[in-house]
Design a protein that fits this description.
globular; Aminopeptidase; Acyl_CoA_acyltransferase; alpha+beta; N-acetyltransferase; acyltransferase activity, transferring groups other than amino-acyl groups; eight-stranded mixed β-sheet; transferase
Length: 191
C-alpha cells in the first residue's frame, strides 16, 4: 500500500519505497542477497520497477527504501507487512541490504526504528519476523535482535525453483520490547 511514513535515526532514513529506487536496487541485488526469498530474483531496472510497484500495491504492506541518512545512498529495503491495526499486530520482513552494510549498524538501526514505531506509536501487541530456515544469515540476524523463537512452519515456503522450505518464526511482545530496545541501543552505541 502506498504510504507517507518516514522513520529516521541512527544514520538510517526509511522512506516509502518508490520506482526511483529501482536502479540502485538493481545495481547490487544478486542471488546471494536474494537467497531465501519466495519470488524470483528481479534482474535489471525494469524488473525492479515492477517489484517496487508490486510492493507498493500489496495490501497491508508498508515498503521502505533504507537510505544512508547523510548521503541518501540506497542501502536496501525492508517492510512492515500483514499489518492488522484492529488486532494490533504486524510483521517486519521483505528485508535485504547491500553486502557492504552486512554486519554494520544498519540492520539494528532499521529494526530499532521499525520496532519503536510498531510498539510506541501503533501500540502493537505482537511484532513477528520470519525467514527461510535455510537462510542462516537472516535467522542469525533475527536472533541477534532479541526476537523470541516461536517454532518452524514445515514446508511453508515455495522457492522460485519449485523447492519447498521451512519458515522459522520469531516475535517480540510488548513486555519484551524494553529489553530488545536496550540491546539494540547497546549494539548501536558499540558500532
Amino acid at each position: 500500500m502506498q504510504h507517507d511514513l518516514v522513520l529516521d535515526g541512527h544514520g538510517v532514513r526509511l522512506v516509502p519505497l518508490a520506482p526511483d529506487h529501482a536502479p540502485a536496487l538493481a545495481a547490487f541485488v544478486d542471488d546471494r542477497i536474494w537467497a531465501g526469498m519466495s519470488s524470483a530474483l528481479p534482474v535489471g531496472t525494469d524488473d525492479w520497477v515492477a517489484e517496487v510497484e508490486a510492493a507498493r500495491a500489496a495490501p497491508g504492506r508498508l515498503a521502505f527504501a533504507a537510505l544512508d541518512a547523510a548521503t541518501g545512498e540506497v542501502r536496501g529495503s525492508t517492510s512492515f507487512y500483514d499489518w492488522e491495526p484492529r488486532v494490533p499486530r504486524v510483521e517486519i520482513g521483505h528485508t535485504f541490504f547491500a553486502p557492504r552494510w552486512w554486519g554494520t549498524s544498519n540492520n539494528p538501526a532499521c529494526k530499532l526504528l521499525m520496532l519503536g514505531h510498531a510498539f510506541d506509536v501503533w501500540g502493537c501487541v505482537r511484532v513477528a519476523l520470519r525467514a527461510d530456515s535455510r537462510n542462516t544469515r537472516s535467522v542469525a540476524a533475527i536472533t541477534r535482535l532479541g526476537a523470541v523463537p516461536e517454532g518452524v512452519l514445515r514446508q511453508h515456503r515455495l522457492a522460485p525453483d519449485g523447492s519447498r522450505g521451512d519458515t522459522a518464526y520469531f516475535s517480540v511482545l510488548p513486555e519484551e520490547w524494553p529489553g530488545v530496545r536496550a540491546g539494540l541501543l547497546a549494539r548501536l552505541a558499540g558500532a
